[in-house]
What does this fold into?
Amino acid sequence: MKNRMKYDRFWIGLMVGIAVPVVVYALLLILLDLLDTMDLVEYFRPRTTMLIAICSSIIPFQYFRRHRYDQAMRGMVFTVLAFTAYWLFENKYLLGL
It folds into this structure.
C-alpha cells in the first residue's frame, strides 16, 4: 500500500506523459532518418510521426490503470490532451478549418 502511495502522484503522471511521447518522437525521427539514408523510406509525414508518439502514451497509461494509480493517470490524461490539442492545431486543415 505504501508503494502505491509513493507512485500515485499527479506530477509523476505529468512527467511520464511528457517524457514518453517526446522520447518516442525522437526515436522515430532517428529511425526514419536512418531508413532514409538507406533509401528504404523516401518520406514519412511529420503528422503521422507525431500521432504515433502521442499514441505511445497508451502503454504507461495502461500500466497506471492496472495498478490503480488514479492520480498518475490524471496527469497523463492532461499531457495527452495537451499534445493532442497541439497536433490538431498544427493540422487544422484536416478538420477543414
